[in-house]
Design brief:
Blueprint: E1 2-3, E2 6-7, H1 10-16, H2 22-34, E3 50-54, E4 57-61, H3 90-103, H4 117-127, H5 137-155
Antiparallel strand pairs: 1-2, 3-4
Helix pairs in contact: 1-4, 3-5
């Protein structure tokens, strides 16, 4: 069985289960494309952790490629609050926990060498609908961190 041009792994199927519908994705992108912080490159801000003022508060933009990855993830949310994450079903939460547990240590840090090149490329291609030719190590690690934050919010 193949997915995203490589042999499928459980991780790739877990990521697929965490994607939003096309309708939700298009709604998110219309909000992003109208946003003052959306860049010509399709990112939320020019670099990760870029501080901005919005509605009287300081927020930190993510720098993520919105159309290629973050806008597709059910657990993702806009860093300034213009759109939120979706509530995951129990089955999705279980798959999300499996992903986080595989790639993080007991302190919640990304394990060195935990993500191999084939998994990265496969996960990245699933996220980008095969529009990207290679995995982005930093982006996949950020995806895992976002998933950790989402799960922490759900547990509290």
């Amino acid at each position: 069985m193949q997915a995203a041009g490589i042999y499928a792994t459980a991780e790739i199927y877990h990521v697929v289960s965490l994607l939003v519908s096309d309708k939700v994705f298009k709604a998110r992108m219309s909000i992003c494309e109208a946003c003052e912080f959306y860049t010509k490159l399709g990112t939320c801000g020019n670099y990760p952790q870029q501080p901005v003022k919005y509605n009287g508060r300081t927020h930190h933009l993510c720098g993520c490629l919105m159309k290629l990855a973050k806008g597709r993830m059910a657990f993702a949310k806009c860093p300034v609050g213009k759109w939120g994450n979706l509530k995951l079903r129990q089955e999705q939460l279980d798959k999300a926990r499996e992903l986080v547990n595989k790639y993080t240590d007991s302190n919640g840090h990304i394990k060195q060498g935990s993500v191999n090149a084939n998994e990265l490329v496969g996960i990245w291609k699933v996220l980008t609908n095969e529009h990207a030719n290679a995995g982005c190590n930093g982006c996949v690690k950020e995806l895992i961190r976002n998933l950790q934050r989402y799960l922490h919010e759900q547990d509290n």
